[in-house]
Amino acid sequence: MTRKLMQLCAIIATLFMLSASVAFGTTTISNVVTTPTSPASLVFNDSVYIDFNYETDESGGVKIFIRPFSDGSLTPNYSAQGALTCPEGTGSKTGWFKITTGTVIVDSLRLQIWDSTQTTLLDQMFFPVEFHYSTNAIKNIVITPTSPASLVFNDTVNITFDYETDVSEGVLIFSFPFADGSYASHIAWSGSSSYPVGSGSGDDWFRILSGEVTIDSIRFKMTNLIETVTYVEFYVPVEYHYSTHAIKNIVLTPSSPDTLAFNDHVDITFDYETDEAGGVRIWTYPYTNGAPTPNYAHGGSPLYPTGSSSGNNYVIVTSGEVVVDSIQFVMWDDGQTALLLEYFLPVYYKYASGSPAGPFGHEPTRPKSFTLSQNYPNPFNPSTEIEFTMLVKSYVTITVFNALGQKVTTLIDGMMDIGTHSVVWEGVDSDGNQMPAGVYFYKFESDDGSATKKMMLLK
Questions:
Q1: In sequence order, which residues have a C-beta less than 8 Å from that of residue 65 and are 6 or more positions away?
Q2: What is the pLDDT of residues 330-361, one digit of tens each?
Q3: Which of 56, 139, 201, 229 is at a distance of 20 to 30 A from 159, taking alpha carbons?
């Protein structure tokens, strides 16, 4: 598979996992998320976990199987979760797979739906992923700021990662920005240290010094110490716009994805930088399928002075069931005759009247009996607080997982009353051992649903 095709597959997979709702006759699958996210490199026996929601009208329920594929065939030497039993109605499930031996790229996952007796195949589909399995891996990658972002020249993109290798003399690990399939020019970057055999963590950085450009991927590469042998190579799709203008540190409230009623605001705050002498105006617009969302409204723009500061705006949809899949940010000069900056932030906001069942009646309703807040601070060191609100009394668990989906510790396991509660994670596992820096997930589960959020532990 070519680099460009892999990159395209990764982008498609990312979009699918964010928002897809796929109907299989009487059964619908939605909100599919893999942990770790694709693309990723893994060592043998690392597990990939697949979470999804389902809704089925099939009498007796259905059984769902998820299997890894490579080049159109089942991936050799795989191990996977057995049948996921899904009773009639709605719910959520988690499957997994891993590769035990044999260097290979898993390029798609096959999802099959059978009747409850496993005698009739009701439907199947494939969706693209990119998981590299070998004895060497670069994983748990965290890129800051989060993509997409607009940056001014000399702004730094920082990268942290974990690695594993069986190369006795050690390895070099490089992360390098690409634009339109070629090395980015006018850059400064950190290069590579020598990483010893075994496992550990590393970091890297780059910045663009001049020349307006969009960085569309970062190549991760592991080689021997003299760079004659490549052990791992893959590309992570990103979108970093470098110029003399920037709109960054964007915060959306409510956060994406979410289900909204007509006229509900998506409030937007941001920071900006510009060298435009007369100041700038910054606008935001909701988009659907590449065009402005029908029946939208948005806030106006004051004149923002040259230099750097912060601003705000909002978007709404007033009528017509629709999914807002991106928000356009544009920066104009004061007279709105020169477009200085434009980029699109992928989102998923589903607008419908009342309490919608999903985008056209398929996606399960978002739970209403609780709210789960983003941990604060985030990133954090050494501890962080997780707040949640219960609208009904319910049994609750909050569990922390690492980026491989392995359980780290349970923070809450018991009945919770109505009201706002919080719990602190000290960055340790269930035995009190300090966890390494990296990405972690906390999963909230109650009688009426579940939610998962990402957090990052720093050292």
A1: 80, 82, 83, 84, 95, 110, 111, 112, 114
A2: 999 999 899 999 988 888 888 887 544 333 33
A3: 229
Bond into 367 cis (ω within 30): no
Residue 18 parent element (H or E): helix 3-19
User: In one letter, which amino acid is 44?
Assistant: F
34 within 8 A of 129, measured Cβ to Cβ: yes
Helix (H, G, I), strand (E, B) or coil at 7: helix
pLDDT computed for residue 451 by the predictor: 78
Secondary structure (DSSP) of 206-227: EEE-SS-EEEEEEEEEEE-TTS
Specify the 3-state DSSP secondary structure of 14.
helix
Tokens 């990483």 locate to 195
Give CA–CA dist 211/184, Å, rounded.
10
**How far is residue 322's CA from residue 295's CA, in Å, rounded to a whole number?**
10
Largest CA distance in the chain: 71
Closest CA to 40 of 405, 346, 429: 405
Domains and CATH numbers, the chain: 3-134 (2.60.40.770), 137-243 (2.60.40.770), 246-351 (2.60.40.770), 370-457 (2.60.40.4070)
Prediction pTM value: 0.63
Distance CA 331, CA 343 (A): 9
pLDDT band at 165 (very low <50, low <70, confident <90, very high): very high
Please say whether the beta carbons of 75 and 111 come within 8 A: no
SS3 call for 338: coil
Looking from the CA of 410 toward its CB, the CA atoms found within 13 Å total 6
Q: How far apart, in whole angstroms, are the C-alpha atoms of residue 113 and residue 128?
A: 18
Averaged over 25-47, what is the pLDDT?
A: 84
Q: Which string of b and e fits 326-359 if b means at least 16 CB within 10 Å?
A: bbbbbbbbeeeeeebbebbbbbbbbbbeeebebb
| Cis bond before residue 436 (omega within 30° of 0) | no
DSSP 321: -
What's the rounded Cα separation, in Å, for the pair 261 and 322? 11
218-242 burial code (b ≥16 CB/10 A, e <16) = bebbbbeeeeeeebbebbbbbbbbb
